[in-house]
Automatic annotation (TrEMBL):
Single GO molecular function: aminoacyltransferase activity
Keywords: Acyltransferase, Cell shape, Cell wall biogenesis/degradation, Peptidoglycan synthesis, Transferase
Alphabetized SUPFAM superfamilies for the sequence: Acyl-CoA N-acyltransferases (Nat)
InterPro entries referenced in this protein's UniProt entry, alphabetically: Acyl_CoA_acyltransferase, FEMABX, PG_Glycine_Bridge_Synth
Protein family per UniProt: Belongs to the FemABX family.
Coiled coil ranges: none
Protein name: Aminoacyltransferase
UniProt xrefs under Pfam families: FemAB
Highest taxon of source: Bacteria
Lineage: Bacteria, Bacillati, Actinomycetota, Actinomycetes, Kitasatosporales
Amino acid sequence: MTLRLRPISREEHLAFVAARPSASPMQVPSWGDVKPDWRAESLGWFDEGGTPVGAGLVLLRPLPRLKRYLAYLPEGPLIDWSDPDLGRWLEPMLAYLKGRGAFSVKMGPPVVVRRWSPEAVKAAIADPEARRLRDVEPTSYEPAAAAVADRLRGAGWRQSEPGGEDGFAVGQPRYVCQVPFAGRSLEDIRHGLNQQWRRNIKKAEKAGVQIVRGGHEDLPAFYELYAETAERDRFIPRPLPYFQRMWTALTAEDPDRMRLYLARHDGDVLAAATMLTVGDHVWYSYGASTGRRREVQPSNAMQWRMMTDAHELGAAVYDFRGITDTLEESNHLLGLLRFKVGAGGEAVEYLGEWDFPLNKLLHKALDLYMARR
């Protein structure tokens, strides 16, 4: 059966997303408003009867002085990735984007490859022979993922590299940490926290740490901690207007799409985080904390409140987002992996991001540019 692809309205796109259990926040129409340097367009796939069967948010980034674009579908598109004939989905997309002036297409299939239980990750960290998560025997495989990868390679798609020394790729993370919520009571989820997490939550309660919901007006307070976190953890922070734009765009689409949480102690904000929700999937998006008064454990208390609220929303997954692939003690991101896995999270590997060079010369030039950044 052939499929027809055409641009769709925001309303059509949002209706398709709403009919699914979940989708990445980067595959909802409002995400295009968060990225003003990109031109956003919603695409829809339709069967022969005109029923919508797929959707994708594509971001088009222009090359300087050229009317040519990098087309990017972060953590998308939302199609039937189990279909043995992926060509009927992807070929119309490539043809359409080529007609729009795209020289290269990048996408991130939301397809899980492997999972490692919290116990497996803990054992791997303790094993002096284990250097990377990808080399450790997983707890479970998703056999269909290998078939998807083979079909993509056979069609000319190229898999992006997993990333540098810390395991993070340019683009969206290939390795994430997720706490499964489906079918579990809140008490069961609390029991899944390790002893350190439970102790820290009690310490925060005893110290009088208060967790409150914030609004747009509290984003500067969040950003002050975020900038401090960026300096401490050695990453380049996004500017404050990015978060203000994100809040405005996402909450206009759905008032509960984005939440801001603040951990206060004696009138001082010690930690803050943003939380995103699409369907039954909840993401811890950005986190920030200060080095002051760490002994009152504000971050653990804040995360537990967020997990509690996510459970109340009916979440099937609480997603801690990206984790490092490296297991070496010398890596400064290993502490973050311990923190997330300590909350009962399993490590999850996705299929990663894939590129299709529509113009090989321009695509190679882009690769060289990105390698030098």
